[in-house]
Amino acid sequence: MQATREGLVIRALSGFFDVETEGGELYRCRLRGRLLEEASASDVAAIGDRVCFEAVDVNEGAILSVAERHSVLARAARTSGNRGAGEATREQVIVANADQALFVFAAASPEPGLNLLDRFLVAAESAGIETICIVVNKLDLVEPTQARALFRDYEQMGYPLLLTSALDGRGVGELRQALAGRLSVFTGPSGVGKTSLLNVLQPGLGRQVKAISRRREEGIHTTRDSELVRLGPDTWLADTPGIRSLNLWDIEPEELDAWYVDIASRVADCRFGNCAHRDEPGCAVRQAVAEGAVSDRRWRSFRQLYDELEAQYAL
Ligand SMILES: Nc1nc2c(ncn2[C@@H]2O[C@H](COP(=O)(O)OP(=O)(O)OP(=O)(O)O)[C@@H](O)[C@H]2O)c(=O)[nH]1
Ligand SMILES: [Mg+2]
Ligand SMILES: [Zn+2]
Questions:
Q1: How confident is the model at residue 213 (pLDDT cuts 50, 70, 90)?
Q2: CB–CB of 313/253 below 8 Å?
Q3: Is the shortest distance between the CB of 214 and ligand 1 below 6 Å?
Q4: Ligand 1 in contact with 3 (CB < 6 A)?
Q5: Which of 29, 122, 197, 214 gives the lowest tally of CB atoms within 10 Å of its CB?
């Protein structure tokens, strides 16, 4: 019998996983038995997972078990059901065991979509991820004060902002410091410069970025597969494909206010325990919006997402 080995999933491709051992050996692995059955409902293995595997050949293996995760950043992904059975959703894991999520937006080109950021923040807050940062890249395209102003609400909520330019290198030192000793993930829309930043952090890596001549082609995602890259002894960074929209996985409308940190701090003062912060009397959230303590945009974003989750749960 082969001895089992341990490793970290650094790449997830359709049907197989690249697992790196402590000593830096790489094995391309498939899921074995029971795990394979469970994989239809959710990603039982994903980048960031620590797994036990059995080597079945030179650099080939079979994953026998996946260690319990301390955080799971996930989204709901539609799958086409069996003929005529309609669509089903399954849990798609963006990264497992991340200590830190860095949501990357561009200060301009493309313009930042704050409603998408709100969804990312809900996903990360509910994922059990310890540190959440917002990276505002392409600082070379706008005035720094303007870039900061776009995300002022978030800074007030306590999310650290990192202003960077992959083009001129500004902010890359701070970014490197924020990454040290942690397993982090870059997530954000396509074309904001996630891979470009990673290439600056790790010269010689040379991951493919969008060619300048193709910049106007909408909807082209340059990075297709997620990959966990080792930047130092205990420092890992996951580069992921751009996300255009994010459907939340396993969040009920009633719990949503807990994950909007600016709204969460007001909820205890609402008159009714089940307040949906819509038009209920004595709603402390509406009061905070009226006073300007919670931004109107955040409240509308919350309401929109609440309605969407309610419609999903009514099905
Ligand atoms: N002006 C400027 N352009 C940048 C910067 N960072 C990246 N770009 C450009 O933006 C485009 C997209 O960069 P990518 O690194 O491929 O973006 P991405 O976020 O990895 O995109 P996906 O892989 O599709 O999710 C490329 O043409 C880069 O050269 C920056 O700081 N400033
Ligand atoms: Mg990319
Ligand atoms: Zn309320």
A1: very low
A2: yes
A3: no
A4: no
A5: 214
Question: Which ligand is located closest to the Cα atom of residue 264?
Answer: 3
Better-predicted residue by pLDDT, 40 or 132: 132
Atom of ligand 1 nearest to the CA of 199: 15
Ligand 3 being an ion, which residues bring their Cβ within 5 A of it? 270, 275, 277, 283, 285
pLDDT score of 40:
83
> Which CATH number does the domain housing residue 18 bear?
2.40.50.140
Residue 4 predicted with pLDDT over 60: yes
7 in ligand 1 pocket by Cβ < 6 Å? Answer: no
Between the CA atoms of 273, 274, 280 and 281, what dihedral angle is there, to the nearest 10 degrees?
Answer: -10
CA of 192 to the centre of ligand 1 (A): 5
Question: Domain check: are 12 and 118 in the same one?
Answer: no
Contact present, 129 and 121 (Cβ < 8 Å): no
284 CA from centroid of ligand 3 (Å): 5
Q: Does the CB atom of residue 171 touch ligand 1 within 6 A? A: no
Whether 138 is in a domain gets the answer: yes
3-state SS, residue 188: coil
Range of the domain at 14: 4-66
**C-alpha 262 to ligand 1 mean position (Å):** 31
- 233 and 258 both lie in a single domain: no
User: CB–CB of 19/61 below 8 Å?
Assistant: yes
Q: Are residues 262 and 233 in the same domain?
A: no
Poorest-pLDDT segment among 81-85, 167-171, 301-305: 81-85
* Mean pLDDT estimate for the chain: 92
Of 66, 84, 115, the one marking the end of a domain is 66
Give the other-Cβ count within 10 Å of 245's Cβ.
10
The rounded radius of gyration (Å) of the Cα atoms in the chain is 21
Question: Is the same domain home to 209 and 282?
Answer: no
Q: What percent of the chain has pLDDT over 90?
A: 80
